[in-house]
Automatic annotation (TrEMBL):
The chain crosses the membrane at residues 16-38, 140-162, 189-210, 322-347. This is PepSY-associated TM helix domain-containing protein. Coiled coil: none annotated. It comes from the Bacteria. Pfam families: PepSY_TM.
Amino acid sequence: MNQLLHFNRTIKNIHLWLGISCGLLASISGLTGSLYVWQPEITAALNPKLLTATQIDTISEGTLLRTASFLMEMHKDSLTRINLPYREQQTISLIYKNGETHYHHPQTATFLGTKSASIQFFEDLLNIHRTLAIPKIGKYIMGGSSIIFLLLILGTGIYIWWKAYGNNFKKGFNIKWKGKKLNYDLHKVLGVGFFIPLAIIAFSGAYFTYNSYYKAALTLLDSSKLAQNQNTVIQPKFTELTRKPDTIYALRAIYFPKESNGEFHFRYIQDRFIEPGLRRSKELKLTETDEVSSLTQFHTDLTSNKIAAQFYPVHTGEIAGFFGRILVFISGLVPITLYITGFRIYFTRKEKQLKRPKCKK
């Protein structure tokens, strides 16, 4: 009995002190993530001139590639990347070596303008969400806090809830809005009610820091651990890739070599704009002599890679469409609510302890 009491007290202390420390990071991550869920709609609404094109659905893949090829020929010596229409962006953007971003019409190649403050804001917001804007170690801080939030804060919270309400679920989900225990009721109900979505978001979020470990674990699902070698498949030459549409995937970006003997990286996606369902992509790397150095594509890829490709749409909720995004948005607001209510519960209990009369010796 004493051992059980000691164990339960330890669990509560872990939940308290990790909630106070790592809970703050989870709150920052949740708030920035919630806002970023609507980044496509907000940036498109604020930047119609830069990001939208009339009747984009009527512009053929061939036209998009010809426009991108024309712009590349004009500016290729000063470019690091070309982005074709993807997600909220219906135009073509050129990323220059000096850091500037220029937008062009996808059909006429007309210059539309440079990166706006609102677009930069969401890029900075994503950087805070992923790294706290701390170079090098920031991603490990956020990735580590996601794992701690998942395993220790959520895990201990569920254990505490189960010990208190395992025999009376109805009471465990009850909120007395006018009672003195409002903070406690909100804390317990939101914690257990959003346990599953928060666990999924935390688990998928940590992937972006520890993807090599995730992929190593996922290889257990492959029927064969031998990587598929698709480099022998005959691929069109560089000039053809920029003019002839792929039969399965749409070209979304071309990354130029960072060094003189580097590789060109072609990124493809099956759906240019946000759609529910699995994320299907293709990655192709070419040398300057048109030799294929790397090729992966969803429809022939290993099971582990297919699953790994879904962490982003799962994390953002896009895999479940508009409903999934709403769920992620609301879930992202829960950690800060748990953090505030948890603090208020802690200070309320401290005040009660201080008001108790001390026993005389």
